Amino acid sequence: MNRRLVLFCVACALLLGCAPFVGTTVVTPSDGFVFWFLRVPRVAVGAMVGAVLALVGAVFQLVFANPLATPSTIGTTAGATLGALAALVAGVPALAGGIPLVTLFAFAGALGTSFLVAAVAARGLASMHDVLLAGIAASLGATAVATGLQYAADMQALFAVTQWSLGHLSQVGYRGVLLLLPFTAITILLLFSLTRALQTLAGGDDLAAAQGVKVRSVRTVALGTGALGVAACVAWCGPIAFVGLIVPHITRLLFGPTARRLLPLSALAGSAFLVACDALARVVLPGRELPVGVLTAALGAPALVGLLARRRHPGQ
Amino acid sequence: MTRLVMQDVAVERPSRAILSGITLTLNTGEMVALLGPNGAGKTTLIRAALGLERPTRGEVHLGNRDVGHLAPRERAALVAWLPQVRTAVNDVPAVELVAAARYRFRESHPRALQAARAALAQVDAEHLAERPADALSGGERQRVAIAALLAQEAPLLLLDEPANHLDPAQQLAAYQLIGKLWQRGAGILCVTHDVNLLASLPNPSRIRVLGLADGRLRFDLPYPSDELPPALSQLFGVSVRTVDTPSHRAIVTEPARTNGSTTPSTADTR
Q1: Which residues numbered 52-81 in A keep a CB inside 8 Å of some CB on B?
Q2: Which residues of A touch B71 (CB under 8 A)?
Q3: At what angle do helices A259-283 and A175-193 cross, to 10 degrees?
Q4: What is the pLDDT of residues A169-221, one digit of tens each?
Q5: Are B35 and B87 contacting, i.e. CB atoms less than 8 angstroms apart?
Q6: Architecture of the domain defined by B3-253
Q7: Please, what's the b/e burial string for B161-178 (b: 16 or more CB within 10 A of its CB; e: otherwise)?
Q8: How many other CB atoms sit within 10 Å of the CB of residue B69?
Q9: Among A9, A70, A119, B231, whose CB has the most other CB atoms within 10 angstroms?
């Protein structure tokens, strides 16, 4: 197990370290602009987004005690899409006075929807099944409004929305890094600080409460913090599918369900996975870039299915 | 000395009262068995004692403080709970499950694991430490759950049917462990359906038996008492009689007569 752990960490570090050098043209730090102002910030954003999505996925799967929970379970992605669409349809300029307005709208939509759902959990009368249902309802509601809005949109806005909804990491300079850094740091630190409470919570709500866990506040903090981090990521990069669902499961299959290992390793694996997928997206089609969400799903899904199949037959 | 006091506690739902007028005390070093038919309110009583259920009337005090005013960690330092045996919720190793029960201690993970291993050793379950919780048998799971109870290091223990779903050997084993906890000075409230298992505890003459039916306490008797068999008969609505075995006086249920009579029969109809 420990050798596997070291190998895994080294592999993740290698992927993260090599990614800036991969592209249609292999660049080195001496190339200056392309390396330092395109590749490095892009890898940094990918690493942060991957870590947040995978960590929040792992935490939500624990909090909901449901293997199908994802960072978007509480409506984050649908809310962000609605926000971005509203901004694009209203003709809000993408940038105003240095403030990325569409991103801001997406962020507001994501937070609004997911805090609404987190508030259901905070009231404490609802079971987590109810919260899950509230999340699905909020997602469906936001999607319905977004669909309605699309009829009011012109072709240009529609194209922008479609592009946004595929998920992307491409960017120039360090603005994204600086914008995402505080959210990433808060999310990771707060969620890591809940590790022990989440592990105790996995034994059941009432038992955890009897063992000293403030069940409702742990849950509210986990959902709220997760929503905050994911809202920032989705607003900046669009919805990137599957990272938050698949990476925690793969980590869990490799290193077991103990939260103390699952959370940090999911975060590490998530950043390496997303950065690697993004590097591949730059080279897989010559002359054009594949949306990174396509690759995360195309690579992650078979990996998970393969690991699940192997677990079924441990003797082989 | 830590004490649990329930004073005139009622738990009411809009449609009906689940508990009413419950008054009882549990001190460290005491063993109280709580018996009653299904739906009598036994589990609700335990939940109220743990502060998981807010009483609609009356008060629950733990160590002289209202249980509702205690922070979860303070409460966990006074009272621990063994829920009913159920299917395991996840596949974490047993030792992590036991370590998780030490949440109330602000300690490092290695220290929690060390204490968890010590607790497992005390219930002769060291060999289960690395086994996933969902791969344990019912008896093994109960052993691990009792280790978790130990690991929490609370002076009062509330046990909800600790022998439920276990085979006879495992039932005895579970009660032997409970006897050990009692001998070390814990105050124990134990919900059970099988009054005879109490005989396997180390000092049966010091056990109190409480009867609960329809949310009310019906009796509070010492375990070895001539009044207990008729009281149980009334509590469960079945006829019972006592059978003296070399080790103890067993209370057995008699098969119901087809005519619905509840008079005890003297002959074994099997």
Answers
A1: 65
A2: 214
A3: 160
A4: 777 678 889 989 999 999 999 999 999 999 999 888 889 999 999 998 998 89
A5: no
A6: 3-Layer(aba) Sandwich (3.40)
A7: bbbbebeeebbebbbebb
A8: 11
A9: A70
